Amino acid sequence: MIRTYSTTIRRKEMDAVLTCMVDERIGPGELNQRFIQQVKEFIKCDGAVALRSPSIALTYAFKALGLEKGSKVLISALAPSWQYKLIENSEMEPVVLDVDEATGLVLMNEIQKGVEAGGKVLILHETEGILPDFDAISAFGIPFIEDISQSAGASVAVKDENGNETGRKSAGLFGVFTIMGLEERDVITGGGGAVLMAPGRREWIVLKKFVDEAPQTDLLPDINCALSWVQVREFSRNEKSRKEIFNMFQHSCMIGRHKMLARDLDEGSTMCSFPLVLNSSYKDVKQYAAKKDIEIEPAFANSVIAYKDELSEKCIHAKSLLLRCVHFPLYPRLTHSETAKIVKVLGSLP
User: How many C-beta neighbours within 10 Å does residue 8 have?
Assistant: First the structure.
């Protein structure tokens, strides 16, 4: 059976973790600092801290923003459910926004409604590695925290006043703060953890006051940093493999009845997974794929809309994607024969 998800752990990752264990340096230390420096070079952010979980990272972001109890926090209905739970546990109010069914990203009119309802901050989940219109979001005048757990490595073209491209700006540099999860199914993994980043010096000065006082138990251990460090270093290689496979899957789907989410297929999105929006029964597609030894899973099983079913009428597009969008296997460790098998199945799905 070809599994839906598989972390890309090669000999380099294993050697880095083993060296860390042999040196008996598994708690937060030198490798934590080396990893942070590498992330700063990778994203081009001003400051960063590696923490034990995305929820701890978001807690520090809330502290740096000075959010008070009762503050309304805007989140996507397709964001991971831990965000909703953390907001509630922080005695704040989550305001859940519906998404564009074509991209899975939060709708602009939903953000507008959230701002008018008193939203203090937006957590911008870049669903399935797809980047939103940052200029349009910035125009609302509300601070936003980027979640690049699935979109790390993607970038947006920077243009001059004449419309000529002068360079590219990485995901993670648009919000007031940025969270990059390092969990098992994130595009870069450390086996757990997260990096909290400040894009500019002004934001980092504010955030640094809080992270300098962080207890050791909040900081990411070196053993996780060893794995993460190699993952960042090998990102370009892994992403190249994912894009090659993604393009083959895309061409196969063109002859089928099912749809893909709209995205920039060049540098403007990260191929963290292969989501397919079904036009037929999930049960039938799952059984058909299983007969060909291919495992598929619902793409948004751990999302806010899955956790809070009472939001279904308010977030109809997110609910539709919850029921119809699935993940097919997409990771660099897929062999040529496995990739060919999935291509064939994608082109013949019921």
Answer: 17
The pLDDT of residue 166: 85
pLDDT at 16 over 80: no
182's tokens: 């390092």
115, 142 contact by CB (below 8 A)? yes
pTM > 0.85:
yes
Higher local confidence (pLDDT), 123 or 161: 123
Query: How many angstroms separate the CA atoms of 107 and 104, rounded?
Result: 9
**Closest to 76 (Cα-Cα) out of 149, 115, 121, 127:** 127
* C-alpha–C-alpha distance, residues 183 and 163, integer Å: 38
Q: Where are the alpha helices (DSSP H) in the chain?
A: 11-22, 30-43, 54-65, 81-89, 108-116, 134-138, 201-211, 222-233, 235-253, 282-291, 304-307, 316-324, 336-346
Residue 160: per-residue pLDDT: 81
Using DSSP bridges, classify how beta strands 47-51 and 274-277 pair: parallel, antiparallel or unpaired: unpaired
CA proximity to 42, closest of 197, 194, 226, 205: 197
262: helix, strand or coil? coil
What's the mean pLDDT in 217-244? 94
Yes or no: say if 174 and 134 are a contact pair by the CB < 8 Å rule.
Answer: yes
pLDDT tens digit string along 171-205? Answer: 999 999 999 999 999 999 999 999 999 999 999 99
Find out whether 341 and 334 touch, Cβ atoms under 8 Å: no
